[in-house]
What we know:
The strands form 2 sheets. The protein has a 6-stranded mixed sheet, with helices on one face. Strands 3-4 form a two-stranded antiparallel ribbon. By secondary structure, it is of the alpha/beta class. It has helices at residues 3-15, 52-68, 86-95; strands at 80-82, 103-104, 109-110, 118-119, 127-136, 142-149, 155-165, 168-174. The chain contains 3 helices and 8 strands; from the N terminus they run ααβαβββββββ. It is elongated, with a radius of gyration of 32 Å.
Amino acid sequence: xxxxxxxxxxxxxxxxxxxxxxxxxxxxxxxxxxxxxxxxxxxxxxxxxxxxxxxxxxxxxxxxxxxxxxxxxxxxxxxxxxxxxxxxxxxxxxxxxxxxxxxxxxxxxxxxxxxxxxxxxxxxxxxxxxxxxxxxxxxxxxxxxxxxxxxxxxxxxxxxxxxxxxxxxxxxxxx
Length: 175
């Protein structure tokens, strides 16, 4: 029996460094140990949620801003549809009774794919406004995106930062 044949695998393992770990072991009670990283627990604050009532108030503030713009002036639009529930639409339509084009509930819109929305009452082009509300920021402000859409060529958005002041959500900035 050849003893070198049994030693060859051990020599190869030793040559690749499997037997030798040159990292010194540091004991915490040694004088020169220095400060070592300790296990730590990071506490993640709970995610703030915007109450449904506040979300609706933020939406209303953004819709009011968008309804004050005139995205529809250069088009032959016969309606503005708000992408929200009927109660919110009725509330805003009551605040803007003479708005041209008139504010109508979204169920009256026909939305063909990749084309201009159509007013079911007139068969003519319409515009859709929508609002996306984010969760509260660390400073208790809320980000929102207000969009308008009347087909691929007539679409856009504004970004808003809103803050609660005096019990009302007010627009702090618009971009």
